[in-house]
Specification:
This protein is an all-alpha fold. It has a domain of 74 residues. α2 packs across α3. The longest helix is centred in the N-terminal third of the chain and has 14 residues.
């Protein structure tokens, strides 16, 4: 996983209203933390494997959990999709669908049919 640049300042101004307001102590740069969270999730890495340029992994994890519970990411994603409209096509990536471990034995038991309906008609 390589170090990715932080979000541009112009995009951060767009996302700024959706982030919680600062209270108490001055917190770590939101732009750096948000970029770190995106980097970890994009690469499917563990929090401890986040590049050090994004700050301590514990900060990334804690901020992600806190913002998730507050609905920050839900508000960001819904605002980004509000202006898009209805898509013409929807796609499902089947690589993320898992079969139950008993599904492998269905073919042997005759529960699952192989082939098309055209072959059965012939």
């Amino acid at each position: 996983m390589s170090d990715s640049p932080t979000l541009p300042v112009s995009k951060m101004h767009t996302l700024g209203p959706y982030l919680p307001k600062m209270r108490g102590l001055k917190r770590v740069d939101d732009r750096r933390v948000l970029s770190g969270v995106v980097c970890v999730i994009r690469h499917g890495a563990q929090w401890k494997d986040a590049p050090s340029g994004y700050g301590p992994h514990k900060t990334l994890y804690n901020r992600f959990i806190r913002w998730s519970r507050l609905g920050v990411f839900t508000r960001i994603f819904s605002s980004l999709t509000d202006n898009v409209g209805v898509p013409e096509e929807l796609m499902i990536d089947s690589t993320h669908l898992k079969a139950h471990r008993t599904a492998a034995g269905l073919l042997k038991k005759g529960v699952l049919r192989v082939g098309s309906d055209a072959q059965e008609a012939a």
